[in-house]
Design a protein that fits this description.
alpha+beta; Methane Monooxygenase Hydroxylase, Chain G, domain 1; Pdz3 Domain; PH-domain like; 3 domains; eight-stranded antiparallel sheet; four-stranded antiparallel sheet
Length: about 425
C-alpha cells in the first residue's frame, strides 16, 4: 500500500465538502477556513529555519522569493499577486501576507501554478526538509497537486478587503460597509487599542446614532479606502477632517461573529476595553436589547444590510392640494382613513439619503422619496398615537403646479411611531444643507 500523509487525506475530505456545498464558495462557507488552514500546514511542514537569522521563515518568504529565483519566464500571475500582497497596508506579519496570498490564489484560480513555480525553483525548495516536507516527497506531491487542480476549477468569491485579522486568525469577522451622507459630524467616540480603532459610544442625535448601523464594540477598519490598521491615536479623526463635507464609505468590522457569538480574536481586546470602561455596552443600547435571552425579536422590525427596517401598515395616500406644510396633516390623515382602504404590510426602509416603502409580501416597491422631497412629517393625535404621515410633492421639480400628496402609515407601537417620525425629521436635518 502506498504511504499516505494525514494532511492530504484531511484536505481531500475538506475539498469534497466544499464541492458538495455548491458552485460558489464565499467567506461564509464553514469549510473554507479549514481548507485554507490545511494548505498552510502543508506549506509549513518541513520548512526549515535559517541558522543565522533572528527572523523566523514562513511560507510567505518562499513565494516572495520566487519572482527573483524562478527563471521560467511565466511568473506574471504570481508576481502580480505577490506585489498586491506586499503593498497591502492591512497586513503586518509574514503570516498575514501568506494567508492573503493563498486567498488571492483561490480567488484567481492560480493555486496550482503558484505551487508549480515553487516545485521547480531549487533555491527555494531546498528550504524544505526532504524527510519531512510533502512538497519534496514525490509520492505525496502528486495527490496534493491533484487536489489543488480541483480547487482551481471551483468558484471562490472572497472579500479580499476583509483581511485585517489574517495576522491573527483564519476566521474572518463580519465586515460591512457603512455609507454616510455628508454631515456636520458622524458622532462616534473612538478608542485606539492594539492598532485597532474601536467604537466606544455614539453621540446622541449624531448621524451614526440616527442611522443605528454602527454599534459600540465594532471596529472602524477603513474610511474611504484609507486603512486604519495599526493606527495611532487620533488618526481616524485626521482622516475624517480631510473628508469633511464629503460622502463617507466606512468599512466596519463587527464584534459579533456570523453565528452571533463574540468574534473570537476580539475577546481579549473587548475584555480590556470593558476594564477601562465598565459602562461599555456592546451592541445596541440597553433599551433596544431584548429583556431576556428567550425573548424573540420584535416582529415589528427586521434587518436589511445592517439597517433596522420597520414593518408597518400602509393605510393609503391622498392628494391634499397645493400646500404641504405640517398644518395640513391633521386634516389629511382623516381624509385617508375615511376611505377605509385595505391596509398593506410594508417594509419602511430609512436609508441615509432617502426612504423606500416595499410591500412585504410581493416585494414590490410602492414608493421612494428623498428626504428633501418630503415637506413635513408628524403623528396623528388620535386615537392611539401609532398613526403617522408625511407629505411629499407629486413632482419634486414643480411642486407649485402639481401639488402635494399625503402618505399615511401605522406603526406597531407608540414608541416606534415616535422613532420613525424622528428619523424622517432627522433625514431632512442632515440632507437639506448640502442638496
Amino acid at each position: 500500500m502506498a504511504p499516505r500523509d494525514p494532511l492530504i487525506g484531511t484536505l481531500k475530505v475538506c475539498v469534497l465538502n466544499l464541492q458538495a456545498d455548491g458552485e460558489m464558495v464565499t467567506d461564509s462557507n464553514p469549510h473554507l477556513a479549514s481548507c485554507c488552514e490545511l494548505l498552510e500546514l502543508v506549506l509549513r511542514k518541513g520548512l526549515q529555519q535559517p541558522v543565522l537569522s533572528l527572523v523566523n521563515r514562513d511560507y510567505w518568504q518562499c513565494f516572495e522569493q520566487l519572482p527573483h529565483q524562478d527563471v521560467c519566464g511565466r511568473l506574471s500571475a504570481l508576481s502580480l499577486a505577490v506585489e498586491q500582497t506586499r503593498v497591502c497596508r492591512k497586513l503586518l506579519s509574514a503570516q498575514g501576507r501568506g494567508r492573503y496570498l493563498l486567498r488571492l490564489a483561490l480567488s484567481r484560480k492560480t493555486l496550482p501554478q503558484f505551487f508549480t513555480h515553487l516545485l521547480h525553483t531549487p533555491r527555494v525548495l531546498e528550504w524544505y526538509s526532504p524527510a519531512l516536507s510533502i512538497l519534496r516527497n514525490e509520492e505525496f506531491v502528486e495527490p496534493f497537486m491533484s487536489l489543488l487542480l480541483v480547487l482551481s476549477h471551483m468558484e471562490f468569491k472572497l472579500d479580499m478587503e476583509n483581511c485585517s485579522f489574517l495576522d491573527e486568525s483564519w476566521l474572518l469577522p463580519v465586515c460591512e460597509l457603512y455609507e454616510v451622507v455628508p454631515c456636520r459630524e458622524v458622532g462616534m467616540v473612538l478608542r485606539y487599542l492594539s492598532g485597532r480603532v474601536f467604537v466606544l459610544d455614539l453621540m446622541p442625535g449624531s448621524q451614526a446614532h440616527v442611522d443605528k448601523f454602527i454599534s459600540p464594540g465594532d471596529i472602524i477598519d477603513e474610511i474611504n479606502g484609507t486603512s486604519l490598521r495599526n493606527s495611532k491615536n487620533g488618526q481616524a479623526g485626521v482622516v475624517l477632517s480631510r473628508l469633511k463635507g464629503c460622502p463617507l464609505s466606512i468599512r466596519v468590522m463587527r464584534w459579533r461573529a456570523h453565528d452571533g457569538t463574540v468574534y473570537r480574536p476580539l475577546i481579549k481586546l473587548l475584555r480590556a476595553l470593558r476594564m477601562e470602561n465598565p459602562a461599555l455596552q456592546l451592541g445596541p443600547a440597553p433599551s433596544e436589547q431584548p429583556a431576556s435571552k428567550d425573548q424573540k425579536p420584535l416582529p415589528s422590525q427586521c434587518l436589511k444590510e445592517g439597517r433596522i427596517v420597520y414593518i408597518v401598515q400602509f393605510l393609503g395616500k391622498a392628494n391634499i392640494g397645493m400646500f404641504g406644510g405640517k398644518e395640513v396633516l391633521q386634516h389629511a390623515i382623516p381624509q385617508v382613513l375615511q376611505k377605509n382602504l385595505p391596509s398593506k404590510e410594508v417594509l419602511l426602509d430609512m436609508k441615509e439619503t432617502h426612504l423606500t416603502c416595499t410591500d412585504r409580501n410581493s416585494k414590490k416597491e410602492l414608493f421612494e422619496h428623498h428626504y428633501p422631497e418630503i415637506s413635513c412629517v408628524g403623528r396623528f393625535a388620535q386615537p392611539d398615537y401609532k398613526i403617522f404621515a408625511f407629505c411629499v410633492a407629486d413632482s419634486p421639480e414643480t411642486p407649485q403646479s402639481t401639488g402635494f400628496c399625503c402618505a399615511v402609515l401605522r406603526a406597531s407601537t407608540v414608541k416606534e411611531c415616535e422613532e420613525i417620525v424622528c428619523r424622517i425629521a432627522t433625514g431632512f436635518k442632515h440632507t437639506e444643507w448640502f442638496v
